Amino acid sequence: MAMEVAPSFPTWEEIELAENYMVCCMYQEAAALSSSIIEQLVDKNVKTNERNCEFGDMLESAAMILVQSYKALGRTSEMLKQLKVLFGSVTAIPAQVFLTGIVKRQASSTKKALVDFWQLAFSYQVNPLAAVQPLPPATRGSR
Hints:
Layout: H1 12-23, H2 27-48, H3 53-73, H4 76-87, H5 95-132
């Protein structure tokens, strides 16, 4: 008869390791570990129906690491979809994590829109002037 080993559940040390990955710019590793931690915590909650303050804190911490890692990886467009997959629904995502994810996603797309706008505005400022009044050719030593 095989002896069943109880599955290990995430610890604060694992969450700290994911955070350390993120701080060391190892965003892919941080995202993968935090995703794994969230999956394990959600699975534990489904099996035991245990809800306590520490469980919520661990879940929120791991999810914030995931959100920040996705932001650093430039994957903000995938963030909400991944959170929904991990948590099962939008309503199960901790409110602080959901709001942070939305803000980071909006900030990322706003930044891109602003950069595109300024590039476009700059090109309209420079190009028409150059077409109407071309700069004289540079001559060396003509003073």
